[in-house]
Design brief:
By secondary structure, the chain is an alpha+beta fold. It contains 7 helices and 12 strands.
């Protein structure tokens, strides 16, 4: 193939199609289960977290007004990218096919990157501060008004501990002291806890023959990005998700392929970049009962 601007544009179009097809075909059910997907229009988004709390009340003299001043969470967007370099000779020799698997993988990674961020954010929740001044997962949370609540108990994933976590979620109360009406429907863990989780949720009858009270009580979501970490989380994910994925840009595929560019002239290579600008954050930690493991 002759190296002309037109031919380079054709190469870019083909690689971009491969990238886009990978993005569109990648399964994102796990993302939708954990995160509310919100379009972003600025560098940082501010969320009135208090609007996710509370219930309807009987109107006597006037309607209760929700104050959001003390419960606003700011989430800045971040930029993630990776570059694939194509050698000039591979274009001249019509050898672009060898790059398509890598570009396809780049598209898949861009589509699934929020799951990587979700795993990082969940594990960081044992140390990162939430808007009430305590860690995201803490035994010492306090609502505005002074009522305390806890969404952390560091124990191993066993049937008894799972039941305790599910009960803690069901009994959780809000700032007014009334139960929030939460229903655990998702157990999140890593590969290290997969067998334990399956033993709790997927076995219908116990060894003595009696019915398993936890059978199918929650769906199981295994995040491979947890690796060997022993953390696990019981979640109420319906209808409000505990996490948010705010998408500012992408996934997108761009090129630096001007034949007169310095890289093309001196190094005989062209660059193609996969990019995504987004952020993942926990907005509603009261929907999660967390454990860092034993």
């Amino acid at each position: 193939m002759e190296i002309t601007q037109g031919n380079l544009e054709a190469v870019f179009t083909g690689l971009k199609a491969t990238f886009s097809e990978a993005v569109q075909s990648t399964e994102n059910e796990q993302i939708q289960r954990l995160m509310e997907v919100v379009p972003s229009t600025s560098g940082t988004e501010k969320y009135p977290v208090a609007t996710l709390l509370g219930d309807l009340e009987e109107v006597l003299d006037e309607v209760t007004i929700t104050s959001i001043g003390a419960f606003v969470q700011s989430v800045p967007n971040r930029t993630f990218a990776r570059i694939v370099q194509v050698h000039r000779n591979d274009i001249a020799d019509d050898n672009i096919g060898v790059y398509r698997p890598g570009v396809r993988q780049l598209g898949r990674r861009a589509a699934l990157y929020p799951l990587r961020l979700a795993a990082e954010v969940l594990l960081a929740g044992f140390a990162d501060q939430w808007i009430d001044g305590t860690t995201v997962f803490s035994a010492n949370h306090e609502w505005v008004g002074g009522l305390s609540w806890a969404n952390r108990s560091d124990v191993a994933l066993t049937a008894d501990n799972f039941e305790s976590a599910a009960t803690a979620l069901e009994m959780r109360t809000g700032p007014d002291g009334a139960p929030l009406g939460l229903q655990p429907d998702l157990l999140v863990c890593g590969p290290a806890n997969r067998a334990a989780a399956q033993g709790i949720l997927d076995i219908q009858y116990l060894e003595g023959g009696e019915s398993n009270p936890n059978y199918k009580k929650c769906d199981l979501l295994v995040l491979s990005r947890f690796g060997s970490n022993q953390a696990w989380f019981v979640v109420d994910s319906d209808p409000v998700r505990p996490m948010v994925l705010q998408d500012r840009e992408g996934p997108e595929f761009t090129a630096k392929d001007d034949p007169d560019d310095e890289d093309a002239f001196y190094r005989e290579r062209y660059a193609y970049k996969g990019r995504r600008r987004c952020a993942v954050a926990i907005l509603a930690p009261w929907l999660v009962q967390a454990s860092a493991g034993a």
